[in-house]
Amino acid sequence: MESELTAPVMLTGARGRLNPDAVGWARTPLIDTAGIDGRRSWGRNKRWEYWNVMTPRHVLALTVASLDYAALAEAWVLDRETERVVASSETLLPSRHVELPATLGDGPARARMGKLSIDIDPHSPGDPTRGTRLRASIPGASFDVTVEREASHECLAVVVPFNRRRFQYTVKDVALRAHGTLTLGGDPIELPGDASWATMDHGRGRWPYDVTWNWGAGAGVAGHHVIGIQVGGKWTDGIGVTENGILIDGRLHKISEELAWSYSRDDVMAPWRVRGGGLDLEFAPFYDRVARTDFAVISSSTDQCFGHWSGSFRMKGGQTVRFTGIPGWTEHVHQRW
Question: Which of 8, 78, 86, 297 has the most CB atoms at less than 10 Å from its CB?
């Protein structure tokens, strides 16, 4: 059985290795990650903030990351109707011109690289349970989005132990209301606050060199319920800790079972299936965001498919919640880093 963490704990011990007391999952971001600072295990530390906002017309995304030997920043905008993309990404070796908080909520995340500017500001520094302001500016586009977060809203925080030297702390926060302004080509567009959903992926850890993962997320309304979907696979297989759960009206229903993912690597636009732990999902993609890099020793391959989730979740008490047309994404990623 997975352990549920209910009190604050350090991710690493005095020698910089994984603290066994931190292994498990939590409904709030309880983990102090100040030990992932690049001074120990240089080259293996991975720190990032990723945010995604889906609206009926657009998808917005931004990333600020440090991999010790490199800094990465990206802002990305998709027009769902025309499939026009406006984006800018930068990679700097060695890592510089990015700012990341030691622990989630302790301060801002920022990037300044060329004509790309990103600011991620918590509404209340030191309190990660409050909302966040997201700003990005790139040639041809900018956005200023406020993400609202109820104090009672739960997330999924998980510490995954590959071993004592390699481990990952991830916080997936889904089904967050968002509103603000997107500017494309000088024209401001108001994001509908009743139909815009934000997702956060916060990561701190030390990864193995070669890793493959699946991640799926989504949010929307089904009947009288707000549904948040958070599923993953491959990178946690056989470890005993998963990053799977469903949010219903802000309450997390943790799924400890490994899920069965079914999809075609040759045709990622075909339907995907995700099943297990009371969950039965089908995902229908409408757009594949492809990213490929290959620098021999360092390489990355990503298919992030945006689309809609449909299916059902059977809760432990026997009640079944059904939903259709929940906007979100799935992805298949292979990293050598």
Answer: 78
Closest by Cα among 36, 162, 166 to 104: 36
Residue 318 confidence (pLDDT): 87
| Cβ-proximal residues to 138 (8 Å cutoff; 6+ apart), any chain | 75, 86, 87, 88, 115, 116, 117
Query: Domain boundaries in the chain?
Result: 1-208, 209-337
| Residues whose CB is less than 8 angstroms from the CB of residue 97 and which lie 6 or more positions away in sequence, other chains included | 71, 73, 111, 112, 113
Alpha-carbon distance of 65 to 49, in angstroms, equals 6
Amino acid (1-letter code) at residue 334: H
Cα(239)–Cα(61) distance, integer angstroms: 30
Tokens coding 154? 């739960």
176-180 — which CB contacts under 8 Å span 24+ positions?
176/131, 176/147, 176/148, 176/149, 176/200, 176/219, 177/147, 177/148, 178/53, 178/145, 178/146, 178/147, 178/148, 179/145, 179/146, 179/148, 180/134, 180/143, 180/144, 180/145, 180/146
Question: Residue 130: which region, alpha, beta or left (left: phi > 0; alpha: psi -120 to 50)?
Answer: beta
Q: Which of 125-129, 245-249, 312-316 has the lowest mean pLDDT?
A: 125-129
Instruction: Give the fold, CATH level 3, of 1-208.
Output: AttH-like fold (2.40.370)
